[in-house]
Structures are given as C-alpha cells and as structure tokens.
Amino acid sequence: MDQVDRILEQWRRERPDLDVGPMGLLGRMKRLHDHLAEETARVFKAHGLTAAGFDVLATLRRAGPPFALTPSALVDWTMVTSGTMTNRLDKLERAGLVERRPNPADGRGALVALTPAGRALIDRAVTEHVANQHRILSDLTPELRARLDADLRAWLGACAPE
Q1: Does domain 24-159 have CATH number 1.10.8.60?
Q2: pTM of the predicted model, to two decimals?
C-alpha cells in the first residue's frame, strides 16, 4: 500500500457511498507529475533556465536552421498566451539567448532567433535533459513504457484532442 491507497481507504471508510477509484489514479498522476517536475527542474536550473525558458529555447532549436520562428508560431508550439510569451522572450533576450529580428518574409513582423550563446546553451541542456529522462524511466521495462505511452496518447486524445 502507498499513501494514495491509505487516503482511499479512509474515504471508503468515511464515505462508502462514493466510488473514489478515480481519486487514486488522478492522485498518483498528480504525485508523479510533481516528482517529474522537480527532477526536470534540477536539470534546467543547472543551466540557469526555468522550464519556461527551456521550452522556448528547445522550440527554436528543434525548428532547425535558422533556429528562428515568429512570435505567433512560438505561442502555438508552446501553448501559452502572447503576453506570457512576450515576458519569456524579454527575459531570454536580456540574457542574450534570443534576439528579435525583422522578418524578411513580412516587413511588419518579427522573428525570434537563437543567438549563438542560446544555441550552445540549449544543446547542452537538452543533452542533459534527455539523459535525465532516460534515468527517470530506467526502472520501467520497454514494454511497460510502450504500453503507458500508448494508453496516455489515447487518453489525451480523448480528453484534449489537437
């Protein structure tokens, strides 16, 4: 039994009229999320980044050369509001990791691009991040990982389709 089982047992004792089964699954997912967020935050912090900053830099890096996107494309990929993105970009620009440039395809628009320092930083950080992800999942068999991935993809598709 884990802590979630003990909580469910208490609820079943106190409110036998309720089916608290979903509370167990969602409670464990919340605890797992919190644990994973802590584990990944350590890697980001070691590189002077937050999860938000990592997200922006990683999005620009995986876009490929010239490692630049419009602010609206960044908003779409990171699923945050434009105001939130502006704050993130301002911080990253002050740190010398991104720069805003005129968009040659749209004279009125701008592009956000990785600076050489930003590219070097995200390359180091993502390498460590991926190694950390492998470490986090190392206790799971490849079969369990594949099954979890498929099940979570199906659930996510059912409750939050793209």
Answers
A1: no
A2: 0.86
